[in-house]
Amino acid sequence: MHGLEFDVAHALAGSLVLASFMMLYQDRLYALLNVYALHAFVLALSVAWQAFIQHAPHLYVTATIALIFKAIIIPVTLHRIIVRLGIHREIETVLSVGLTMIGGIGLVALSMVVMLRVTPGADALAREDLAFALSVVLLGLLVMVTRRNAVSQVVGFMSLENGLVLAATGAKGMPLVVEISVAFSVLIAFIVIGIFLFRIRERFDSVDIAALDRFRGERR
Amino acid sequence: MSFDALGALLLIPAVAAAILALLPGYRVTAALNVLAALLTLSTAASLFVVQPVSGQYLLVDDLNKVFIVLTTFVGFTTSVFSASYIGHEIDTGRLTPTFVRFYHAMYQTLMFAMNLALLANNIGLMWVAVEVATLTTVLMVGIYRTHEALEAAWKYFILGSVGIALALFGTILVYMAARPVIGEGADAMVWTILVARAGQFDPALLDVAFVFLLLGYGTKVGLAPLHAWLPDAHAEGPTPISAVLSGLLLNVALYALLRFKMIMAACAGAIAPGPLMVVMGLISVIFAALMLYRRRDIKRMFAYSSIEHMGIIVFAFGMGGPLANFAGLLHMTMHSLTKSAIFFAVGHIAQVKGTQKIADMGGLTVTNPVLGWGLVLGVVAIVGLPPLGIFMSEFLVVSSTFARQPVLTAILVMGILIALGGIFMRLNVVVFGEPKGVTKPAEASYVPMFTHLALVLMAGIYLPPALVAGFSNVAKLLG
C-alpha cells in the first residue's frame, strides 16, 4: 500500500527520529523539555495516523494520552520542578555534541540494518516503523548515558518509551492492553521519578547525579 | 469449581496491600502481613490438589507451579523474618511508623506482581507484572532515604527501566513474528498459542526478539555485564527485601526468559538460545567470583554471590536437556532457600553490630552463637560443600554438562572454586577470630532461617521421589 497513507506514516515516524536527534544537542534543560514536548506531539500525530489507516479506533486513546499527558502535563510539571528546586539550567554532557551526534547516526544505521534485514516478510509500513522505533529507543538510551543530570536522564528515558509506543502501534492489531499499560507505566515511572527528585533535593540540594556518584559502597 | 485458586493468588496480596496501606501500628500490620503471606502460600499449595483451568490471561502448568510454590513459601518465611526485623528498625528509629505502613503495603504489592508475572499467559501481561515488581522494589530499596539508599534506588530504577524497556521491545517483536501466523488481536500474545504455533514463525524476527528479551529480562536476572544495579540494591535496602530480591525476583525474571526460550525452541529455524545463555551465565560466574574477593560490605558480598549463582542456573538452562534442566531447577530452588536464609542471618547480625562492614565484625560464633553458626551453615551451603543441597545441585549441573562441553564446564567449576575461596576468606573474619564491635544478644527470629537451612540439608541428603518426579517432568517441558 504505497501511497499517501504510507508516505505520511513514514514522514511522521521519521520526524520522531529527527526529534530524538534534536535532544542530543540540547544543552539547556528548558530547551530539552521543549524538544521532548515536540517529540511527544509528533508521537501523538503518528499514533493518530496509524489509528486512521489501520481503522483501529482504540489507538486514538493512545494518541490522546500521548498528546495530553506526555506532550503537555509532563513537560509543564518538570518545568515547574526545575523552577521550584532551582536546578542548574545547564546540562553537563559526558561527550561532546559532535561525538554524540556521530554516535547517534551510527545507532540509527545499526537499527536500520538489523530491522530491515530480519523483516523482509512483514509489510513495508510495519518494518520501517519498527526500524524507526528501534532508532528512537537507541537514541533515548544514548541521551541517558551522555547526560549527568537526573532530569535529562529521565527525559531520555521518556523518549525511549515513546519509541516503544511507536513500535507497539506500528505492530498492527496489537491488543489494547499493552498500549494502555505502556502509557500507565510512564505515569508510574513519573510518580517514582517525582518522589526521587524531591528526595534527592531534600538530602543534597542538587539533582545532579554526579553528587550521588561519590558513593560506591567500597571506596570509603 | 467454586474456589478459584488463580484468582485468589492474585487477590489475597492485592487486598492485603490495600488493607495494610490503611492500618497504623506495626505489630498488627506485621502480623497481618504474615497472615496474608501464609494464605497465599496455602492457596499456592492447593494448586497441587486441584489444578485450575488455564485461560486467555492466566495459566497454570507444571513449570510455573514450581516457581509459584517457591515464591509464596519464601515470601511467607521472609514475612516472618521481616516482622522481627522491622520491629528492631522502629526501635532504633531507622524507620518511622508511616514508612513501615508503606513498606508492608509494598511488600504485598510485590507478592502480587510476582504471582501475576508467574501466572500470566499473555506475554504483555507478564511484562506489565515484571515492571510493577521492579517499581515496587525500587521504592523499597530507597526506603531508608540515606545518601547510599537513594543512589542505589536511582541506579536500580534507571537500569531496571532500560532493561524492562528492551524487554518490551522484544515482546512487540514476538507479536510481530506471530501476527502473520496467528492473526491480529489478543491471541497472538497468548503464550500457549504462541508455543503451539511457533514452528511457522519468521525465525529471523524471533532471533532479534530473543536478543532484546535476553538483554531486557537478563538485566533483571542480574547477568553480567548488566548486573550493576544488583549489589547496590541488595546492600542498601532493608534486609528482608534483599532476601526477596535474591531469592525470588531474580527467579521471576529468569522464568520470563525460560518461557521465551521455549518459544524459540519450538521454532526450528531460529537460533538456539542456549549458547547465548551459556556464555552470559559463564561470564557472570567468573566475574562475580572474582569480585567476591574485594568486598568489604557483607550484604554486597552475598549480592555478588547471587550473581554467581544466577550465572550457574542460566548456564544449566542454557545447556538444556532433561538432566541439565533438572539440575538448573534444583539449583534455583536451593539457591533461593539458602540465600534468603543467609540474608535472614545477615540482617540480624547487621542490626546487632550496627554496621554492614565486614571489618567491624568478628567472632560471631562466640558473641552470638546461634546467629554465627547459622551463618556458617548457610555459607557452607552456598559455596557448595557437601552434604547440603547446593553441593548436590552443583554436582548435577557439572556432571550433566561435562560430557557435552568439557571446556565450558571446567570454566564453570573454576568459577565455583574461586567463589568458594572468596567467601570463606571473609567468613573466617566474621564468624571466627577476635570478637569485634558491639556485642549484645540479638532479638532475632531464628525459625525462618533454620527452616530454610533444614530444607536445604534435607535436599542434600534425600530428595523425595515425588519432588524428583515433578522436577523431571518440568525439565522435560523445558526441552
Characterise this structure.
The complex is a heterodimer of chains A (220) and B (479). Helices cover 79% and strands 0% of the residues of chain A. With 220 residues, chain A is mostly helical. In chain A, α2 (29-54) packs antiparallel against α3 and α6 runs antiparallel to α7. The radius of gyration of chain A is 18 Å and the shape is globular. In chain B, α5 packs antiparallel against α10, α10 packs antiparallel against α13 and α11 packs antiparallel against α12 (298-319). Chains A and B meet through α4, α5, α6 and α7 of A and α5, α6, α8 and α9 of B.
Radius of gyration of chain B: 21 Å
Number of helices, counting only DSSP H or I runs of 4 residues or more of chain B: 19
Please report the total strand number of chain B as a whole number. Answer: 0
* End-to-end gap of chain B: 32 Å
Return the average pLDDT of chain B rounded to an integer. Answer: 89
Greatest contact between two chains = A-B, 50 and 52 residues
**Morphology call of chain A:** globular
Number of strands of chain A: 0
Strand content of chain B: under 5%
Low-confidence stretches of chain A: 215-220
Major β-sheet annotation of chain A = none
Average pLDDT over all residues of chain A: 78
Task: Report the biggest beta sheet of chain B as strand number plus sense, adding barrel if it closes.
Answer: none
Order of helix and strand elements from N to C terminus of chain B: HHHHHHHHHHHHHHHHHHH
Taking the alpha carbons of the first and last residues of chain A, their distance comes to 63 Å
Q: Percent of residues of chain A in helical segments?
A: over 70%
**Secondary-structure class of chain A:** mainly alpha
Order of helix and strand elements from N to C terminus of chain A: HHHHHHHH
Radius of gyration of chain A: 18 Å
